[in-house]
Amino acid sequence: xxPDPSPRPDRPSSADPxxxxxxxxxxxxxxxxxxxxxxxxAEIAQALAGHAYEIICVDDGSTDDTRDRLLEAxxxxxxxxxxxxxxxxxxxxxxxGVLAAQAPWIATLDGDGQxxxxxxxxxxxxxxxxxxxxxxxxxxxxxxxKDSGVKRVTSRMANAVRARLLxxxxxxxxxxxxxxxxxxxxxxxxxxxxxxxxPALVLRAGGRVVSEAVNHRxxxxxxxxxxxxxxxxxxxxxxxxVIWLQRRWKRPVAERVSRPPWAPPEG
Length: 267
Hints:
Blueprint: E1 24-30, H1 34-47, E2 53-60, H2 66-74, E3 79-84, H3 90-100, E4 105-108, H4 120-130, E5 136-142, H5 149-166, E6 178-181, H6 182-186, H7 198-204, E7 208-214, H8 228-247
Parallel strand pairs: 1-2, 1-4, 2-3, 5-7
Antiparallel strand pairs: 4-6, 5-6
Helix pairs in contact: 1-2, 5-8
């Protein structure tokens, strides 16, 4: 029997048009978030319907079924799956995702489902409208947090201390939902827990930061990977490190005073 020349539905045909280059890459670091993968990816797909996008999920050495659920999501949606051989932390997950991203704009959010993907379009629209120079970070502001009382109080205190010491002009720098240009992020110094200090690092690099009110939801599935004491201990040393970075860098203002020899003559 002669082979059937028609392409199988589960295999792309060479005649199929290439998918469009994504305009925005959604980067999600995950560790042991198996139950949250498919619901979260489906929400992102719904929020960005009509746009060219990609979702980059970074499995940070999970020990549950996160990897399997990510591969299942990749079979249904434009999902790129990366995996760290061992856990390197949330900031490393963000860095790996941004490095792999194909779009000029990046949106980040946490993998626990508490950030609402429906807020991404509004943050992205503001970033494009106000960030013509490619130097603007739009940070989510969780005005109605759905965390425990202890977590809300400690977070409020940490934000107040951080704002006072770093001058980061951000009421909620710990919110995982942020939108920024990929090129801007790649200019920033990288270190563990840097994701909590992106506003201060962007300001240090000469960029701008604005905040946008976003929805916040209770965690419905899985367990938090952080404890209140863990956050407090690492935040103190990290904050001192960021203060050192701020004081040890002078942002130059360069003015061109000569023309390169290959430039065409003026006039």
